[in-house]
Amino acid sequence: MRSSDLPKGVHRVRRKVSAGYKYHFYAWRGGPKFWEDMARTPRVPDFFHAFAASTSKPERHAYLVAQLVDEFLSSDAMPPKARSREDVELWVKRFQVEFGEDPVAMFEEPASRAEFNAWRKRWIHSPKQYDMAGTHAVKLLNWAVSEGRIKEHHCNRLKKLYSSNRSEIVWTPADIEAFKKVAPGWVQRILLLGCETGLRVSDLVQVRVDHFEDTRSGKRLRFKTGKRGRVAYIPVTTGLAELVEATPAGQETLLVSQLGHHLSARWASNQITKWRREAKIPPWEDGREKTLADTRGTAATRLLNADLSLRQIATLMGWSVRYASQVIEIYARVSPDESDEVSRKLERAKQQENLR
């Protein structure tokens, strides 16, 4: 389609929707959006009227946050990975709902920081969401500055509440048994696969039956991780072998929904949270609730019991050898049913690694 089929300067962006593609039209590249249509080249009079209205340069205070968000979502500032794009879009659209009718210039005023903080306090109950609200909204405002939409903003250097270091949190055998008593079978499989492999949540939902291969000593899971792109070789523990054996014939991935559909990482995590609350599993010592991502400490101990060295465990988990040792020590401390055997194996592993 020739560019002359559109008014001069119009920038067209295609976005995939359930019905096919929808086209977004901007008065110029980086300019205001004035039209959306399923047609690639609209011919209705209202399209041209909207374009004419959008090309008159707006007053500075008429440039609203709603318009800024639309431009940002269509810009090259958006991350390339689908999951990251979803996170950014979720939070900047929430920001748009709150401030969409306000001029972007308001964030040049120091008093705007108080309004910004009042907005993100809606998620104060969840430190991670509280921090994400601020992080993505500041990313939007930084982009506005870099694109010359505003001169500056006063929402930088925000205080964060969430601690990303959760590797010391573990699911104990008692936790797992309590969970299994209330959670449906397909949800139990999510937790057990995490506890037996230590894979990140985004990787867990991708594990397929054909990722398992025979070795001279048994079986192993051969899986290319999504975050670092490394190939992980994970021995098949007794629990993992039972999980694979119980997978119905013809089911490609180990984890599916109740209706047999593919699981997203977010949905899998949400189900663990939902049924953990039903099971009344106690929080960690510092009050933090256990999540699906916290199965990695449990998995480290499973792998030690499968005779992996501390160095091998550390490589799989992305930890240091010393830290892997510390996490397993924590597991032994809070899991009295397994503490003696775990402690003995850990001591032998330490001696092999000369960790003192």
Characterization of the model:
The structure is a single chain. The protein is mainly alpha-helical and 356 residues long. It has three domains: 1-57, no CATH class; 78-162, no CATH class; 173-353, hpI Integrase, Chain A. The protein has 14 helices and six strands. The protein has helices spanning 45-54, 65-73, 82-99, 112-120, 127-146, 173-182, 185-197, 201-204, 238-245, 265-279, 296-305, 310-317, 321-334, 339-353, and strands at 11-17, 20-26, 33-37, 212-215, 218-224, 231-235. The strands form two sheets. The protein has a three-stranded antiparallel beta sheet. A three-stranded antiparallel beta sheet has the order 4-5-6, with no helix packed on it. Helix 11 packs across helix 13 (321-334) and helix 13 (321-334) runs antiparallel to helix 14 (339-353). The longest helix has 20 residues, at 127-146. It is elongated and about 75 Å long. The model has no long low-confidence stretch (mean pLDDT 87).
- The first-level CATH class name of the largest domain: Mainly Alpha
Query: Main sheet?
Result: 3 strands, antiparallel
In the CATH hierarchy, what is the architecture of the largest domain at level 2? Orthogonal Bundle
Radius of gyration, CA atoms, in whole angstroms: 26 Å
Number of helices: 14
Order of helices and strands: EEEHHHHHHHHEEEHHHHHH
Count of all domains: 3
Pfam family, one: Phage_integrase
Organism: Psychromarinibacter halotolerans
Domain Tyr recombinase: 166-344
Protein name: Tyrosine-type recombinase/integrase
